[in-house]
Design a protein that fits this description.
Radius of gyration: 17 Å
Number of strands: 2
Strand content: under 5%
Structural class: mainly alpha
Oligomer: single chain
Number of domains: 2
Shape: elongated
Helix content: 55-70%
Strand order of the largest sheet: 1-2
Order of helices and strands: HHHHHHHHEHHE
CATH topology of the largest domain: Leucine-rich Repeat Variant
CATH class of the largest domain: Mainly Alpha
Length: 164
């Protein structure tokens, strides 16, 4: 009953209540909660719900939560609300999502999004196909980032493993 109420409170219109529910779910720290969190994330109607749920998934989510957080990045609801989602991804295995994370680093106008994307790109290992590498280079050449950031981006591209 406690978990059910906490899950319900994630969708509260009160940010403090939603954040408290997220914190309490993290304290429970049960992988059994992850499918319920994913469901809340998928059905979220407010950015507060997305953010509170993403924070809980950051701490207790497994690989199964990554595709749903990536999907949340593309949800129109989160057009201007990517920071917490990308922050949540820092703790999770994003190895299959190089292009998505790279896109956030190269094209986002928000420093906190770029910083979290940078952290993921720097800390995690990626394997790309030739076509994905080509796409990353195309993204980089079409960007308007500073020469320093372009150099960092080129380094990220050069450090990925090539899929044979």
């Amino acid at each position: 009953m406690i978990i059910k109420n906490l899950i319900k409170n994630l969708s509260s219109n009160d940010w403090e209540r939603a954040l408290n529910a997220s914190d309490e779910l993290v304290k429970i720290n049960s992988k059994d909660i992850v499918p319920q969190l994913i469901l809340v994330l998928n059905m979220a109607e407010t950015t507060d719900t997305v953010n509170a749920t993403a924070l809980a998934l950051r701490e207790i989510g497994g690989k199964e939560s990554v595709p749903f957080l990536i999907q949340a990045l593309n949800n129109p609801l989160n057009k201007n609300n990517k920071s917490t989602i990308v922050y949540a991804l820092e703790n999770l295995d994003c190895s299959k999502y190089f292009l998505t994370i790279f896109d956030l680093f190269v094209f986002s106008k928000k420093d906190d999004v770029r910083l979290s994307a940078y952290s993921i790109l720097k800390e995690q290992k990626f394997t790309l196909t030739d076509s994905e590498l080509k796409k990353a280079n195309e993204m980089l050449s079409s960007s308007e980032i500073s020469s320093d950031d372009k150099e960092i981006s080129e380094k990220f591209i050069s450090q990925v493993k090539r899929d044979k």
